[in-house]
Amino acid sequence: MKGKRWELPQKFRTIYWQNFALTASIVMLTLALLGASFFALSYAYAADERSDEMAQKASVVARLVASYASSGDVRDMREMAGVAASMTDVDFLVCSTEGSVLLTTDADLAGKTVVVPEDITQTVLGSERLYEGRSTVGVYEKKQFVVGVPMTDADGNTLGLVLAVMNSAELTQMWRSFIALFFMSSAIILVLAFITSFVTAMRQIQPLSEMVKATRAYADGNFDVRMQETGSGEIGELATAFNAMADSLQETERQRRDFIANVSHELKTPMTTIAGYTDGILDGTIPPEKERQYLQIISDESRRLSRLVRRMLDISQIQNQEMRKEEFDLCESARIALLSMEQKIMSRGLDVDAEIPEDSVMVQGDRDLITQVMYNLLENAAKFAAPSSTLYLGLTVNGEKAYVTVRNQGQTIPAEEIPLLFERFHKSDKSRSEDKDGYGLGLYVVKTILAQHKEKITVTSENGVTAFTFTMQMAR
Description:
Elements: H1 15-71, H2 74-86, E1 91-95, E2 101-104, H3 118-125, E3 131-135, E4 144-152, E5 158-167, H4 168-219, H5 233-282, H6 291-320, E6 326-329, H7 330-340, H8 342-347, E7 351-355, E8 362-365, H9 367-384, E9 390-398, E10 401-409, H10 442-452, E11 457-462, E12 465-473
Parallel strand pairs: 7-9
Antiparallel strand pairs: 1-2, 1-5, 3-4, 4-5, 6-8, 9-10, 10-12, 11-12
């Protein structure tokens, strides 16, 4: 049986704790590296400073001892050495060339026979002329910090050597003061870093927490929740994008509800009519002589219901099918759409003004779908055109785009209604149309097809003249 793998508790896997752990790790690693470097450099600096100081004092003592030794006044030499030792925390050992200690200021060594190790003697009296290091000097229990210099007379003759000896603990006293200061500074930096990390993490977590709450609200169907757009940078952009998404979801939900309501209404009306008249015929409420009249109504409503379902299926197919993009002649498609509308145009008593170039205008797109766009626009224009007015279909080219315009003369569309023309089941005021059987899907199909082609359509309506213009990409 395998053991269960240990994992961090859930609360420690949040962005705050991850950010905190990252910041703390970086700060502590940085302080550790700086501390190690600081310790090494500060100790070396302290040792060098004290070594130079001891070497200078040992040299002074060596010159004085050599001077008194040449005069033969040993008592003055002892007094001078004692004064030098009392003015500093360093003890001096005056040795012969063989390493025997002749004079010392260390009271603990008084009366003892001390011989300096040979390696120290050879280093001082040899070519290096200076010794620095740690040594027991053959007499101390613990290693001392020792600096040795040669002792010479006025003629340059080597008389012996002088050792300056100091306890190592005294050497590190100043260094330890530096260490204490460093640790205090490091603690302050750590506290400031942790506080900064906490504030930064909380500022990052707050909008994310609001986003989580908003997302849960959206899941429950409440699309009124919005994030507070404060500050700049990525968090501000995220809040703006999130609110834009919420607006889009709210609009989609509204359209979905409207779609269901409209579909229910459009299906309910013919189905109620069909059911009512059928029941009337079956139960004898409708006289036999009027049965044919009401059967005709039932037949018409059935066909209208079939057309509605077929139109909705066409929209679904257009949205889901893969567009067959090819090069085709837009002029030819315009003529085909115009000929297909001939009967409806004649029934309305409309004149046609067509400005279609004789030469081919080759564009890129789905031939059948674009032909459907022009047919729907012409059908819509004919439906709302004033009787005996002129219906216009024009095609122009400007740069890399072809422009198709369908225009009619009738009542002006209110400006507030123009953005709604391409929504599903939207119907403008029926009083402006003699056709009461529209479903409000024709222009929605137009918008859907042009959106698949990544093309635009614009609408203008002024002084009774309404024009629809859409673009197409020219073939290369």
